[in-house]
Amino acid sequence: MSTTSWPEARRIASGSAIPLPLTRVPLAQAHGMVLGESLSALVDLPPFATSAMDGWAVAGPGPWKITGQVLAGQQPTRIGDGEAVEIATGARVPSGAEAVLRRERGFVDEHDRLHVGDGEDTPGPAAVPPARQRMYGSPPGTVATRTPRGSELGLPIGTDIRPQGQESRRGETLLSAGTRITPAVLGLAAAAGYDDLPVHERPRVTLLVIGDELAESGLPDGSRVRDALGPMFTAWLDALGVETTVARVADDAGQLLAAVASSPADLVITTGGTARGPVDHVHGVLAELGAGLLVDGVAVRPGHPMLLAQHGGTRHHRRFVAGLPGNPLAAVAGFVTLVRPLLRRLSGLDGPVGALGAASHFLPLGDAVRTHPTDTRLVPVSFADACAVPLRFTGPAMLRGLALADGLAVVPPGGGVVALGAGQRVEVLAV
Ligand SMILES: Nc1nc2c(c(=O)[nH]1)N[C@H]1C(S)=C(S)[C@@H](COP(=O)(O)OP(=O)(O)OC[C@H]3O[C@@H](n4cnc5c(N)ncnc54)[C@H](O)[C@@H]3O)O[C@H]1N2
Ligand code: MOO
Q1: Cβ-count burial of 119 within 10 angstroms (0-12 exposed, 13-18 middle, 19+ buried)?
Q2: Which InterPro entries does the record associate with it (predicted)?
C-alpha cells in the first residue's frame, strides 16, 4: 500500500468511522459525551416569572403597603394595587406585581410604607435608568411598552422581573444533535428539566504501549527510558470523553497479537513497533489478524510510519487499530491525524469538515518555516500577537517544544519552495 497524503489520511480516518449507537445516560455520567438528539427545553425558562434582584415586588403606583415576604422556592399569593412584598432574587413574582424595586432604590418609612429613593434625597425619575429596561428583552407575546402604572416616580412595568420564558419557551431547541456535552451543557440541561440525556455511546479505547525499553516510574537508567506516551495519551483520551484501558506490551509478537485480539474496544491504539526493525511487530500482527489496512504510512513529518486498520467488528460497528510511531512527537502526529478524527466521528460529533481533528484555527506564521519537498510538516507553535510562532526542540523524539505549544501548524509540502514565509496563513491543530 502506498503512502497516503496527510489531508487524505485525515479524511480516511474520519470517514471510516460510523457514530456509535444511541443510549440514555444520567446527567452525572454524560460529561464529554455527545448529544445524539437535539435538546429542547422541557419547560419555559425561567419556568415562572422571577425577581432578578433582592427588593420588593410592587403592584400599582406607590407608595406601597408591605404585606409580606416571598423567598426563592416559595409560592407567593396575589398582591393588589398599592401593595408590595419583600422579595429575594430568584423568588417567584406574585401575580399582580408589576415590577421589582431593588433594595438599594427603595426605603420603608416609619409607617411601613415603601417608597422609591433612599429616604433622604428627593428621588427623581431617573431612579431606574432607562438603559436597564432594555437589558433583558421581553418574552414573545408580552407588551413591553404598556403605560407605566407601577410607579410613583418612574418605575417602569417589568423592572427587574425575569419574565417566564425569557430565555426559552418550552419545546424550543436549545442545542442540536452532535454537540459535545460540556459542563455548561450539563447545567443548561438540568435547568431545562433533564435527568438523563440521549447520547452516543462513549467510545472505548485500548491503549497498548509497546516497548521492552520503557520504564513506568523512576529515573531513566543506562538502557531504559520512561514511557512518555502512556501518561500523555491517557490524559488526552480522557479529555476527548473516551473510556480508556491502558496496557503495557513487550516487544513480542504473540503478546501483541493476544492483546489486540482480546480487546473489546472500538479502537486499539498501539505505540511503537510500526517501523521495520527486528522487534517491530505491528504490521505482522495486523496481517495475522487479517486486518484491512486503511492507511499504511503518511506523507507527514514527523510520524510517517503511522497506520490505521480495520479488524473484526460488523458492518454497523466497525473496530479499528491505529498504529502510532514510537518517537513521541511522531506519535502525537499520528494521534491528531488518525486517532482524534476517528474518535470524533465515533463519538457522534458533528463538526465542520475543516475541524476533522478538533477545532482548528487559521493563523499567519510568526516566522518562516522550512517546508518538506513532498510531505506535510506538523510544527509545534505558540500563539503570540495573533500569529503562530514556531517553537524550538521539536525533533521527532522530543516533547519539550510541544509542551509549550498552543497548536501544531500544518505546513503543506513545499515542492520546489524551501520555506513558508512569515505572515503566510496556516491551519493550526489544537493540542
Ligand atoms: N530503517 C528505518 N528506521 C526507522 C525509520 C525508517 O523509515 N527506516 N523510521 C524512523 C521513524 S520516522 C520513526 S517515527 C520510528 C518509528 O519506530 P517505531 O514505531 O517502530 O517505534 P520504536 O522503534 O518502538 O520506537 C522508536 C523510538 O521511540 C521511543 N519510544 C517508543 N515508545 C515510547 C514511549 N511510550 N515513550 C517514550 N519513548 C518511546 C523508543 O524508545 C525509540 O527511541 O522509526 C524510525 N526508524
Ligand atoms: O515518524 Mo518519525 O521521525 O517521522 O519520528
Answers
A1: exposed
A2: MoaB/Mog-like_dom_sf, MoaB/Mog_dom, MoeA-like, MoeA_C_domain_IV, MoeA_C_domain_IV_sf, MoeA_linker/N, MoeA_linker/N_sf
The pLDDT of residue 145 is 34
Q: Establish whether residue 206 lines the binding site of ligand 2, counting it when its CB lies within 6 angstroms of any ligand atom.
A: no
Block means of pLDDT (10 residues each) for the chain, length 431 residues?
95 94 97 96 96 96 94 95 96 96 94 85 44 36 34 75 97 96 97 97 98 94 94 96 97 97 96 93 96 97 98 82 98 97 93 50 96 98 97 96 97 95 96 93
Boundaries of every domain in the chain: 4-21+201-355, 22-44+168-200, 50-162, 360-430
Closest residue to atom 40 of ligand 1, CA basis: 326
Cα 345 to averaged position of ligand 1 atoms, centre (Å): 28
In angstroms, what is the span from residue 169 Cα to ligand 2's centroid?
54
Q: Give the pLDDT of residue 358.
A: 53
Which pLDDT score is estimated for 351?
A: 59
> Hey, is 283 helix, strand or coil?
helix
Q: In this predicted structure, what is the pLDDT of residue 123?
A: 44
Q: In whole angstroms, what is the distance from residue 351 CA to residue 280 CA?
A: 36
CATH architecture label of 22-44+168-200:
Alpha-Beta Complex (3.90)
Domain 4-21+201-355 is found in CATH 3.40.980.10: yes
Torsion, Cα 334 337 341 343, to 10 degrees, reads: 0
ipTM of this model? 0.98
As for ligand 1, residues whose beta carbon falls within 6 Å of it are: 209, 211, 213-214, 225, 227-229, 271-275, 277, 280, 304-305, 325-328, 330, 396
Distances in whole angstroms, Cα of residue 266 to Cα of each of 20, 130, 210, 287, 313? 9, 58, 19, 19, 8
CATH number, domain 50-162: 2.170.190.11
Say which CATH superfamily domain 360-430 falls into: MoeA, C-terminal, domain IV (2.40.340.10)
CA 331 to ligand 2 centroid distance, Å = 8
pTM above 0.90, yes or no: no
Say if CB 133 and CB 141 are below 8 A apart.
no
